[in-house]
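Crash report, auto-generated. Payload:
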Amino acid sequence: MGSLRLDEVQALLVGAVMHPAQLDADAAPPASALLRPSARGMTRASRLEVYREQFWIRHLASLTEDFSTLRWVVGERAFDELLRGYLQAYPPRGWNLQRLGADVPEFVASSAPWSADPLAGDAALLDWAFMEVFDAPDAPPLDLRVVAAAPPDAWPQARIAFLPALRRVVTGHAVHELRAAVKKGEECQRPLAAPTHAVVWRDAACFLHAVAVDPVAGELMRALLDGTRLGEACASVAAAHPAVDAETFDANVGQWFQQWTANGWVCAVDI
Amino acid sequence: MGYRQRHAIPDLGVGVGLRTPHVAHVLRDGPPMDWFEIISENYFADGGIQRANLERAAAAYRLIPHGVSLSIGGTDPIDPGYLARLRALVSRVRAPWCSDHLCWTGSGKVDVHDLLPLPYNPETLSHVIDRVRRVQDELQVPFALENASSYMEFEASTMPEHEFLAELSERADCGILLDVNNVFVSAYNHGFDAEAYVDAIPADRVLQIHLAGHTHKGLYLLDTHSDHVRPEVLDLYRRALRRCGSVSTLVEWDESIPSWDVLSGEAAVARSVRDEVLGATSKEAAWGASA
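Recovered output after restart:
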């Protein structure tokens, strides 16, 4: 072991530190041969175990804080199992612990037994959206003079920019209501299935919110978030909902835009 | 001319780590505190409450960034995005220096978010020197490395940690953040002489001292930052002050974080030790000298 390069030494140690089960003299990983036993009677493996134990404590605690709704949905014991499985499937990458749970929604959606519970998938999506908006970039507020000065015939060409700290989350349950109740420590019940378009955002005072929006408004937001011009976005969404007449649709768009600006969701209009 | 003098490193007095439970009180009431240390990575984001708080705290107090994720001893390339964010933070808070740890934090793009020790030998030394130089070129402010607490030693080590750190600081021309609690913890865990360690550190390169509490786990001490600074660690602090002179001191408390009164009381204890060793006017004298 003495001839190993530093990168080889570190690779071996990372494997040992992330080992899912306790290390001891009977289950000493190859990395323990790199170490000296301690003068106070700690074996090589037990010295590595100090780091292994801390790895799991630190990362489980971080994810537990980040996914409170998911924790409630799957239950405490199963949640621990879920997180341990996640950390083995998606080892921490990069310095940013805030990003540690970035793949939890994907893991929950694709891994048995969690994938069998749609509410768990919804909870993971929403919890992660909150994490993303927590420290997303700031943006200056919308300059309402730009909006007021825009000629009516320019609006179809407009691009609407939403806050960087805003996420649109489409779920099969009103999981934003469940999250609010969990956060308040209220008695909760599993919600019934109810397709929901939620918007999660950080306001100017850095408070985080989530509300449900009209599903058609949610579709329009998706098109606008993708960078589609307003006229084209409205046309495509209206075409998908032929039962809504054009006059009603236009009136709805006007109301939605007022609601978005009142909530501070729109940060720029490029006309 | 010594490192501190060459870089006009000020003595900021005794500060504490700025932690979430105290942020509202600090920003609202502006309690007296010489300075605050901030965990660099917590303030890298381009928006949100942390950044907003940072702007307000920086307007009222001296802030010094202290990182935990640079991985100066790692073998993965240093992340240029990380360095750019650190440089921007240093600039934003107008920090006279910043620091991280003599350690590595991951390998093969996996980050275990811990401060892992290195094998102390000439090959590792050359590797770390090269990386420190690159970091300093990028940051353009004095950069200090802290001796981390450790719980394992390598068969491949051929020199003691203090010798490695001393030679590293001289050859890379960087500063040292001397954590006397970490010296105490590692000395217990590895059976070396903590006083000899402090005596061997190049005093003029020490631009900051850390104090913290630790936890006795039976066969080893764990650096938990969860309690008062132990009397034995304060004794080691006295020894460090006698060697290093008027150096900024920081009390860390990261777990079981107490009330502000208890934390500021802990800083007062450190301040009284400083005054006892250096005299009550040491901080002002240092500011005058560096002005």
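Post-recovery validation: Chain B has a mean pLDDT of 95.
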